[in-house]
Amino acid sequence: MNKRYRHFSIRKKFYVIAVSVLIAALLVSSVTAEETSIVAVKAGTIYPVSSAPIRDGIVLIRDGKIEAVGKDLAIPEGAEVIDAAGMVVIPGLINAFTTLAEPDRDDEESVTPDIRAVDAFNFYGEYRRMLAGGVTTVYVSPGQKRLVSGVGSVVKLAGDSVAKRRLKDSSSLRITIGELSKNPPALWNPPVPPDPCHPMVPQEKQLPTTRMGEMAVLRNVFGQAQQYLNERPRKIDWKMESLLPVLTRKLPVRINCHNAQDIRSAILFSEVFNLRLIIEGGTEAYNVLNQIKWSDSPVVVTGAFEPGRQYPKDDTRDIMLGRVNPSNARLLAEAGIKFALSAPTDATIGDLQFVAGYAVSQGLSPEEALEAITITPAEILGIADRAGSIEPGKDADLVILTSEPFDIQSVVDKTLIDGKVVYTRSEGEPEKEHAEKASITAIRAGKILTASRGIITDGLILIKDNKIAYVGEPKDIPEKATVIDAAESVVIPGLIDIHSHLGLHWESEPVRMNPASPTSGSGSANLVSISNAIKPNDEGFRDVLRSGVTSVLLAPETGGLVSGNAALIKLTGDRMKDIIVKEYAAVKFSMLGSSAKMTQVWQARGLLKRAKEYAEKWDQYERAYEEYERRRQYEKDKEKEPNEEDALDEPQRPRRDTNLELMRGLFKRKMPAFVHADRADEIINTLKVFRDEYNLDVIILGGGDGFRVMDELRKYNVGVAIGPDILRYEKGKAINNADLLTRSRLRVALHTSATSGTQYLPMNAAYAVRYGMDEDNAFRAVTIYPAELLHVDDRIGSIDEGKDADLVILSGEPFDFRSRVEKVIVNGRVVFEREE
Asked: In the prediction, which pLDDT does 315 show?
């Protein structure tokens, strides 16, 4: 090749490369400039925690990091401004102990230092309740009940990516001593397949079983790790490798210990192996303040009680995990010991601010309490360079409160993580200061299916707070109302599943939910509220809400003559009072097949006879007592001293019977008897005993042979709850039981009898329509009919003025496969919105 041409070619390539690099640099610069985000939070008061409060201050955030904090800061042009004037800004709260990796589950082995909690944490989970409490960061424990559980981790509860949310994969090695780690399960490792050389062997008992055994096992394990560190064998032992960072003080050891003796043992053990110690639990830390201070160990103090929940312990006797002292945090502070406060359980993480407030009520200063849920846990967890205070360079994890942190009425208005709002208080959530300001929402609807009074085309729905204020033709919309444009959509009432087990997980099911419960006999449940078995933020609720189901009758599984009580609940709300529509909505019975049918009938008759006599006795007493109180007040007003002959005798109070007490509502017809019966004879017996003899409101659950006894059902005007098996085949012909019953002018309600399967309620109704059921009847079977049968049609089931604003906005007709749920509104608040 010509030399001159070769030089020209090389120069040409160089120019091309240089120009390409320059263009790429300009593009990267341009993209970077476009992606730069600037947020300014203008606050009434800022508590940086690391310095004095700032009045009328500004927090300037650039690309998720705090750039500046102070007064009179210049806000860059184009910055997003969050107006928190009159409000308080604090750092994101840090909960220093949770079991969110795998709640209530521990590895079977007693010593597993190689387990990491971060490997089991669900970064895609629903943590709204915690974010609503201002908690942005949590420590995740690898377990609770094993001697050496593994390595705990620190994560954020929201964020753009998993990588950004993993603050510290290895935070500390967790050890548990005391009562919790004793008597781990035995291990059984059968040979597969067994043979004469490898026979089946019994289970291997694990240590420890005593406190002495705990310390012996720990000394043995750490002694082996020390030897492994010194000798460094060729063969890698991953359990030993996991202990090396602890022995070399690169990683702290976190020992869960509650009573004073266990705390002393933890300190002594850490001294023997020269470990960096964090004390977790510390229930009796107040008894060993000098030893803790001498060891220079920080303490993660578990909250003394669960806010808003019954306290089950007797502190004078339940002292195996230490004797509770409400002043524990204050005494630690006075001793100069570094400590963090944590919520007692995962269910109360969102109440961390309240837990700290309780410590304030017991003498801890508000400043120390705020530090104990922000900067101090950040220092203990080794993330103080990123979280815990409002300082330049740190992650912009902030909480905006409506008032001072420990004002009892203070609530979280917004929560920010990395400078982005991850929680905003909705109109339906509490704010005492502005409670008098009603929120108004207007929905312009293409079609409204009211379920009670037909169809309204091109209509308007006005919602005031959580109630429907207007339904009808378009009219002027109030100023400042939030407008939802559903002009191309169909609005229906929230759907109701009249028999569901949603939220009743295996670990929370009451005794009567046991599948082994007898299917016959007189055994009756102690009829406590089944709503106690669920939690408001159950992760299964949201999936069902997306289908348009907003309320369910939560019922126990069928078992025995009396299965238990059923509660009508809504599927969203931060507190139980927001969720419960009717705590005692029905009593569930079973008249299902038995080898001694007449015995079962007599048992039902006998139980109802006792219940009726009990109800009448109490009604008589209450009337007599009311008359007694009236006459007594009359004598008092007349200032008349009664003589012995005229002296009033207070009526004698009957004895309470917890099993019969709830049934009083049946005889006052405040709720129905929900009777599981399928065969024709079972249905007839139910009608004879419950309806004919005792004149109770009855809903037949199942009713498979209902079409055979339609005349009897119609005579007593009872409701029938059918599903999810709607069809049966006889001689090759499909029989749609729901269709036949509705044609006989009976009220039929469709149900799923499922947990997660509750989300398929609309499909159950669509299936009934597919096989002949009238669309209007199918629609009413999941809206107004169940509401009427449960005596709650004054609140839910249709779109009428004065009722709860539980609405579903669909892209098309309810039973059209092409329809999509666009929005779900419960109590006037949008709880689900489909993403485009």
From this structure: 67
> Quick one: which of 600, 608, 601, 499 has its CA closest to 557?
499
Cα Dmax for the chain: 139
Spell 367-399 as b/e; 16+ CB within 10 A means b: ebbbbbbbbbbbbbbbbbebbbbbbeebbbbbb
Q: Do 73 and 59 contact (CB within 8 A), yes or no?
A: no
What does DSSP assign to residue 693? I
Angle at which helices 211-231 and 260-272 pack, to 10 degrees?
20
369: its two tokens: 């309490």
Among candidate residues 621, 628, 614, the one with its CA nearest the CA of residue 653: 621
123 secondary structure, DSSP code? T
Residue located via tokens 């309490």: 369
pTM above 0.85, yes or no: no
Beta strand ranges found along 503-646 (DSSP E): 549-554, 562-570, 580-590
Q: How far apart are CA 548 and CA 451, in angstroms?
A: 15
CA 793 to chain centre: 27
DSSP character at residue 804: B
- Separation CA 725–CA 744 (nearest Å): 20
Question: How much is the pLDDT for 639?
Answer: 64
Structure tokens at 420: 């982005």
DSSP string, 40-97: EEEEEEE--SSS--EETEEEEEETTEEEEEEESPPPPTT-EEEEEEEEEEEEPEEEEE
Where do we find the tokens 């190689």? 114
Helix (H, G, I), strand (E, B) or coil at 351: helix
Residues whose CB is less than 8 angstroms from the CB of residue 106 and which lie 6 or more positions away in sequence, other chains included: 143, 144, 145, 146, 149
Six-digit token pair at 774? 């009238």
Contacts of 274 (CB under 8 A, 6+ apart): 249
Angle at 363 between CA 358 and CA 364, to 5 degrees: 75
How far, in Å, CA of 37 to CA of 19, rounded? Answer: 29
296: left (phi over 0), alpha (psi -120 to 50) or beta: left
Which residues are CB-contacts of 446 (< 8 A; sequence separation ≥ 6)?
A: 457, 458, 486, 487, 488, 489, 490
- Quickly list H helices, 176-327: 211-231, 238-247, 260-272, 289-295
φ, ψ of residue 136 to 5 degrees: the values are -110, -25
- Taking the alpha carbons at both ends of the chain, their separation in whole angstroms is 60
Q: With a cut of 50, list the residues of the chain below it in pLDDT.
A: 1, 3-10, 14, 16, 19, 21, 26-34, 428-437, 506-526, 595-596
- The dihedrals phi and psi of 176, each to the nearest 5 degrees, come to -125, 125
Which structure tokens are listed for 271? 């001294």
Q: CA 384 to CA 375: how far, in whole Å?
A: 7
> What is the rounded CA–CA span in Å between residue 155 and residue 142?
13
Residue 104: is it exposed, middle or buried by C-beta count within 10 angstroms (0-12/13-18/19+)? Answer: exposed
The structure tokens listed for 322 are: 């230490």
As given in the structure block, the two tokens for residue 523 are: 């055994």
